Amino acid sequence: RWTAVEQDKGSEEEDSEEEPKLKYERLSNGVTEILQNDAASCMTVHDKFLALGTHFGKVFLLDIQGNVTQKFEISSVKINQISLDESGEHVGICSEDGKVQVFGLYTREGFHENFDCPVKVVALHPQFTRSNYKQFVTGGNKLLLYERNWLNRWKTSVLHEGEGTINNIQWRANLIAWANNVGVKIYDISTKQRITNVLRDNASLRPDMYPCSLCWKDNTTLIVGWGTSIKICVVKERNPTEMRDLPSRYVEIMSAFETEFFISGLAPLADQLVTLFFVKENSDQMDEEFRARPRLDIIQPLPESCEEISSDALTVRNFQDNECRDYRLEHAEGESLFYIISPKDIVVAKERDQDDHIDWLLEKKKYEEALMAAEISFKNIKRHDVQKIGMAYINHLVEKGDYDSAARKCQKVLGKNMELWENEVYRFKTIGQLKAISQYLPRGDLRLRPAIYEMILHEFLKTDYEGFATLIREWPGELYNNMAIVQAVTDHLKKDPTNGTLLTTLAELYTYDQRYDRALEIYLRLRHKDVYQLIHKHNLFSSIEDKIVLLMDFDKEVKIGRIHLVVEELADRPELLHVYLHKLFKRDHHKGQKYHERQIGLYAEYDRPNLLPFLRDSTHCPLEKALEICQERNFVEETVFLLSRMGNCRRALQMIMEELEDVDKAIEFAKEQDDAELWEDLISYSIDKPPFITGLLNNIGTHVDPILLIHRIKEGMEIPNLRDSLVKILHDYNLQILLREGCKKILVADSLSLLQKMHRTQMRGVRVDEENICESCHATILPSDMAKPFSVVVFHCRHMFHKECLPSSGTIPGLQFCDICSAKRRGPGSGILEMKK
């Protein structure tokens, strides 16, 4: 289709970035043929069809594509106006020679009259089809109302005259609006009252050359355009208290403003206006005006001005020859369709839909926005396909050289279409960008042919070993022929046999292929950390029995399960054997228990700091053997521990004092053993050594009575820091006294609290019923006949007896105890409660 609009050449450069609001196309088919030999004079739009009047007196009914469905020969001169009712079943026509015809489209019966003067306009009642609304008006020198009465005759009434030719009438509901040379009037057909008179602003303009444009937005809002002035009038109900002799309705002008050009037509578009302008411009070469292309603008009315939303200059046929009165703007109610009528051309303007929006975005190369718009409204678009837009976007990115973005978009655009995926892969191969698309290829349930993945791997293998290794790690082994890739890697290793990246990748390929021995061999050669994961995951212990030393050489943290095999393998490498057994012991003290004796020597030789912790934690090492080794090597601390563990604490203490000469350690040892004889030995050894006495005075107070030590100190012996030591002893003694007093208070308070609690408990009532039994005779505690007197004894321990079943109170009158509890232990709870009746 030919688009009948071009953007105004004089617009600023940035305007081209604003998306048009309307799209245009020429009404063709039958219309083209009609306008070749005739000229359009008027047109009326209905939802179902169009009615076109011509200068040669013909009326054509057209479908919305412009095809002729009916033709009426009305006159030999210009058709001035065509009017349709809302149903589209009746039409009213008037012509320049005074003919007026109103008839049904399905019957020619109706009103046919010839007047002696031109009739400029005719308007049918919107509900003309209904019998009680058979009314229409005509306008020439007078505004005449025709009504059909009950005798089926037409009655004529003059609604207005005397103000020149009436050139426009618009009928909506009960309101008739018309324009004459003076202004615009509105008549209420229901009350038969004229309710307003809106005067013409620019009286200098000839009304026949610049006719008034009228348009009802709704049942109460009238839009008036005349010359360069637009007014929006609202019909309102008058307050009954203000009526007096005034009409029941009045008109308020809500908006009035001037435009730059002359108005040829108006139509509502939501809360905006579509305005057809007749444009005259001054020539640059001459001082005279010339007719430019008409403009169709969308404007936003404001109270005293307007805001331009969009403006399009229309290239209609013969626009240079047209005047303002030659253009008309008609619109379809309920649809955003606007018809621009000129003598030799009819252009249809439509609101742009989502398809048009996407067209514009694609034209401006805004592919990402176009793709997003298509995805959001994929149910509403008709001409576009989301995937095709996505492909166009990918092509655009490739042309720009943004290969990574293009490849990333493939994931979203190509989706599950494997054929398109393969085509794109081959295209990226052609332009040498297989690397870009490799990370985005499908690798889940939907997959390409193995040859595609192999092609990419071969490409990486030629140029990028690291990238090749990454793909092997990321891609599942099922995507490609593993053996083919193994062979390719092997061929490359012939040229570069020490390449660590290729060797590691080859090991991974062998692992995928379950050839674990080959993979293990490579990992061991490379000393790769993944070797242990491979061993444990696939239980390859039997494969490494002869490779333990190699494993331990590059990683002493090795974790291997078959202990005896490892020990045998490491027999010639004692330092590695020690590391292995030490790690094993740290994990489980009992797992390698039969090697604990061997470990004593290994610790003594290679790791003395861990020997003492080993001796403390192991319950399986022979103490005599350990003592022998430690004495040979003069390991005093370890020897002391072993002697104490073997029960020779006096010898151990003697070694601490004589060989280590460490009074603090000796005191600590004595504290651990908590043996009075050891303390006596320690005091005896220290009595002639002042530094030892100082240490004892400072630490002995909480374990041994300090008086024992002080009495044994020789008179005149000089002891370092004696005063401080004595002060500390006194302080410790005071502290002990305070602690004892505090504990005593707590004990008394707790005893009192518990006694009160016991008393409260014992003072509570005890329930006695037929379920309880006598603990002596085991009969029911209560008699069957409750009317007879009985006596029951209930002790605080909850044991119950018949009084006669209890033995005598004994030596102490009135004092009795529970036989059961007394047999065990006499104490609280064996007191008595006596119940009599």
Automatic annotation (TrEMBL):
It holds the Pfam family zf-RING_Vps41. It is a peripheral membrane protein. CHCR repeats lie at residues 551-695. Residues 774-822 form the RING-type domain. Residues 1-23 are annotated as: Disordered. SMART domains: CLH (SM00299). InterPro entries: Beta-prop_Vps41 (IPR057780), Clathrin_H-chain/VPS_repeat (IPR000547), TPR-like_helical_dom_sf (IPR011990), Vps41 (IPR016902), Vps41/Vps8 (IPR045111), WD40/YVTN_repeat-like_dom_sf (IPR015943), WD40_repeat_dom_sf (IPR036322), Znf_RING (IPR001841). The keyword Membrane applies. It comes from the Eukaryota. The keyword Transport applies. GO terms for molecular function: zinc ion binding. Keywords: Autophagy, Cytoplasm, Cytoplasmic vesicle, Endosome, Golgi apparatus, Lysosome, Membrane, Metal-binding, Protein transport, Transport, Zinc, Zinc-finger. Residues 1-10 have a biased composition (Basic and acidic residues). GO terms for biological process: cellular response to starvation; endosomal vesicle fusion; macroautophagy; protein targeting to vacuole. It is found in: Cytoplasm, Cytosol; Early endosome membrane; Endosome membrane; Late endosome membrane. One of its GO terms (cellular component) is late endosome membrane. Plays a role in vesicle-mediated protein trafficking to lysosomal compartments including the endocytic membrane transport pathways. Belongs to the VPS41 family. This is Vacuolar protein sorting-associated protein 41 homolog. It comes from Acanthochromis polyacanthus (spiny chromis).
